[in-house]
Structures are given as C-alpha cells and as structure tokens.
Design goal:
Elements: H1 2-9, E1 31-33, H2 54-65, H3 67-74, H4 78-83, E2 93-97, E3 103-106, E4 117-119, H5 128-144
Parallel strand pairs: 2-3
Antiparallel strand pairs: 1-4, 3-4
C-alpha cells in the first residue's frame, strides 16, 4: 500500500511481479536458511564442500530432490517462470554452488557463525508462510533420509554438456 502510493505520487508504478519487463532482470525472494542447536551453534558449519557440514549437504539434497514439488509453492504463477531464464543471473540449474548465481542453491561466503544456504528460486508472488514451510520440509526430509546432493557445481554451468 505504502510503496504503491509513494510510486503513484511520483508518477511511477510499483509492482512486485517476478518479471515485469521482458529482457530485464526479474525480482526474486531469495531465502537464506541455516539451522542452529539449542546452544546457538550453527549446524551448517563443517568441513565438507564450501565449509558446510554433512547435515547442511543433506538439507540441500532434500531441496534438490523435492524441487519439482517445491516450486509449486515458491513459484506459484506463470510469471514466476518467466524470471527463471538463462542470462539474467536467474537460478536455472538444479544444483548447488558457492560461485554460480545460476544455481538453485548458492552458498554465500560467510563466517562459520553465519554459514547458510541461499535458495534462489522463490519469488515475491509466493505465500511466505507456505513457501518457508515447504522449504523446511524438503530440507528436513533430506536430513532424515540422508540425501546427498553430490559435489558443488563451481564451473560455468552454461558450458557443461
């Protein structure tokens, strides 16, 4: 309400559509996730790929395994998928990486206390309560069933055959 009224007063239009203009970057709702123990220890910090713990890798594995169903909640409209196209740093590959912005899941460079994953496909049309719950369910299923995502894809994903 406030954003749209301020835009209107300045002769502009505000929108939260994921891809309002063809040929331009879209708007995502990237979700950062980490799990902590009761004493505050970050459970995603470890010695595996990208300084993640095995638990974090299993969480990533769950998201990747359930990605098809998950996108129904995190990308609920046709316009959601117009944002997910190559060439605009959009997450178009169902992999994780600590370098590529075109991967579904990116591992931001961070301190051990702030170690997290960034799930990059959600957009502003998603209901956050449902989307966050679905993301957690997929990740926790990955932990429960020890779904390993494999090694990170830190190469140029557009050049991979």
């Amino acid at each position: 309400y406030i954003v749209r009224n301020v835009a209107y007063r300045s002769g502009s239009t505000a929108t939260f559509m994921p891809k309002p203009v063809y040929g331009d970057n879209g708007s995502g709702m990237h979700v950062h996730v980490s799990l902590h123990s009761d004493d505050g220890t970050n459970l995603f910090t470890g010695n595996e790929d990208a300084h993640l713990s095995e638990l974090a890798l299993f969480f990533i594995g769950g998201i990747i395994r359930h990605a098809d169903a998950l996108l129904a909640f995190t990308n609920p409209t046709i316009n959601s998928y117009k944002r997910l196209v190559p060439g605009y740093e959009a997450p178009v590959f169902q992999v994780y990486s600590n370098r590529n912005r075109s991967a579904f899941i990116r591992i931001p460079n961070s301190s051990p206390k702030a170690r997290r994953i960034e799930f990059r496909t959600p957009d502003p049309t998603a209901n956050p309560y449902v989307a966050f719950s679905a993301i957690l369910m997929a990740g926790l299923d990955g932990i429960r069933n020890q779904i390993h995502p494999g090694p990170p894809m830190n190469r140029n994903l557009y050049a991979v055959p």
